[in-house]
Every structure is written in structure tokens, then in C-alpha cells.
Design brief:
By secondary structure, this protein is an alpha+beta fold. The chain is 19% helix and 24% strand. Strands 3-1-2-4 form a 4-stranded antiparallel beta sheet, covered by helices on one side.
């Protein structure tokens, strides 16, 4: 079962973050660091993954994957906010 993680490098409120569904925290960091590389970040050692268990129910499949916007979640579910 995939678990939900907020993955970021630096401050997620000012530097941004992505949402990763993965089996473990380190797997989320690894997958997330690859995606963050396109933002100019991506150092595995500096990447943080914070569990978001309330979003576990939205994970699908067995392979880790990344969500970069609310469009990747069901209608009415929001992880990212422009005001928070």
C-alpha cells in the first residue's frame, strides 16, 4: 500500500513542495529528489519527506508516483494552496 508524503528541500512554504505516494519515507525522498531536480534542487541528502496519512486513501497502484498540483487529486481534494 502506498503512503502519502509531502516532499521538499528547504522551506516548503517558500520554496515549494511536491506530493509523493510511495511505500516508504526513503523511497518518497528518492523519487521526490529526482522530480525536484527539475526545479534546480534535488539533493537526496537535503530532501525531506513528511507523512500525510490523511491523504493515503487517494493513493493508487503499487508503483511510487508524484503529484505536482491539485489536478492530480480527486475533485474537491486539495493539497496545495496559493494562500497557505
Amino acid at each position: 500500500m502506498l503512503k502519502a508524503y509531502m516532499v521538499h528541500e528547504g522551506n516548503p512554504h517558500t520554496d515549494g513542495c511536491i506530493f509523493v505516494f510511495a511505500q516508504t519515507r526513503n523511497q518518497a525522498r528518492y523519487v521526490g529528489s529526482g522530480a525536484l531536480a527539475s526545479w534546480g534542487y534535488g539533493e537526496y541528502e537535503a530532501t525531506h519527506a513528511i507523512r500525510k496519512p490523511s491523504f493515503d486513501q487517494y493513493g493508487a497502484g503499487d508503483s511510487p508516483y508524484i503529484i505536482e498540483s491539485n489536478d492530480g487529486l480527486p475533485a474537491g481534494v486539495a493539497f496545495f494552496s496559493e494562500t497557505a
